[in-house]
Amino acid sequence: xDSHTLVSRPRAVRITKVRDENGQAKSLxxxxxxxxxxxxxxxxxxxxxxxxxxxxxxxxxxxxxxxxVWPYSPGTNALCSMKEGDTIxxxxxxxxxxxxxxxxxxxxxxxxxxxxxxxxxxxxxxKKLSATxxxxxxxxxxxxxxxxxxxxxxxxxxxxxxxxxxxxxxSYVANGLIANGKFDVVYAGLxxxxxxxxxxxxxxxxxxxxxxxxxxxxxxxxxCGSCSIGKYLVCRDGPVLNSEQIRECFAELGVFRRTxxxxxxxxxxx
Amino acid sequence: xxxxxxxxxxEIAELSLRNPIILASGILGHSxxxxxxxxxxxxxxxxxxxxxxxxxxxxKPPAVVEVRGGFLNAIGLxxxxxxxxxxxxxxxxxxxxxxxxxxxxxxxxDFVKMTKILDSAGASAFELNLSCPHVKGVGTEVGQDPDxxxxxxSATRRNTSKPIFAKxxxxxxxxxxxxxxxxxxxxxxxxxxxxxxxxxxxxxSGMPYLSNRYGGLSGEALHPIAVRCVYEIAEHTKxxxxxxxxxxxxxxxxxxxxxxxxxxxVGTVLAxxxxxxIEEILNGIKGYMVRKGYRRISDFVGLAHSGK
Lengths: 270, 308
What we know:
With 270 residues, chain A is of the alpha/beta class.
């Protein structure tokens, strides 16, 4: 990486390792100086020439960093079939990361929202702070990162259908734990409708939150405005927004978003 | 001279602005909330993202790539259409934020309809995008056709009494012809310029970075080209000019003013630096004026022409 490397110009990196997380999601490991200096919550934009460009959270930040990919589109399908030695292109990292607050945190992640929270859980553990992690998925098959998380914090497993651990949506399980009131901060990476429900509970208990948001993104650098929520840009001000910022854009959170053309459409749960 | 004796206020084609910095079209131009944030951040006015009569999808990503000296973009004029933009204007109706509506198209009849609804929805002025370099049939292709420019500007003029700015391309071989056609048809002023058609290739894959292959170059690399355009146009017109292209600090803004611009637009710098840069530019201009003894922006508009 020379001094001329432009952060927003895709750079080719070789995949050094592929890890099958649950028979569906794959973690692709690579060596990238920029990513190894990222903080939990930062994201990269992955490009496969001629196929697709996709924003992705960094799931592990190390000399070998990783993105964890769920197959749902031409680009993510291609990524999931990649092998060691294959090449992907990255730009970034981008965005404002999670900030560590307090001594005892609650982390909540579900499905594809789990990636940045794995990096965050490891970061919190490295500071010798305690954390409880609600590891959620729709069904048992969707759960990932369990063994890795169990080494860093207390894990509460939950599924929407109850096939493993506690039964219910992530917000339902989270609100039960938040009601105990022993946490200093709530970190969550979920769909906006779920985040909305958690925010109401946390606000009632005056518990600060940091939410990792995902909105359709075109440029990733604060030019196009397609990822806006209220006056904030998910790519620049986010993806992690704090309680004060969420309060300001609460009318929009989980209610409506903008398409890449800028049109306003209702938010659907995922 | 002290800072208190200085006024940054400018008047361009009956548009009174608290200072000469305007948000350029295509940058964060969808939402009322963001317009408000940029106005609070110091900009005197905002230009919306160019809109068409009907909604239009953006190009597939990659739509943006960084190059040395700036960015290439090919967003593809994606926009939610004129009616959706009216909703954003309505959200701002109680606030005193000058919003300049940017329009594109190839059919003068579209401009008639858009001008009518945007004028009554409270747009403060209009900017006609005769210069987008990466979409077929509109933008630059329209700007290269003086007859069509005449028709489009006249169609807009007939339906509003508000200022109309024609935004022209830096790559045009007939720049001054386009400017003249626009002014003769009723344009109040000129915005110079838009991005310039450009390309960047990834050497590993051998492919263009942008899904549209071609994009528009913005940022520092564009600035000297845009300054040349402003200077050239200023030699031929008395109407106000708005400088646009590669403003990254107060110095690059002042260059535009010296070349003949009465106001200056900012865009890419909000991404390459931040929205906070607007405030820095304004402070820098003030410092320059104190040093030079200028009380008003108009004291140094076009000064570069006098020394020839």
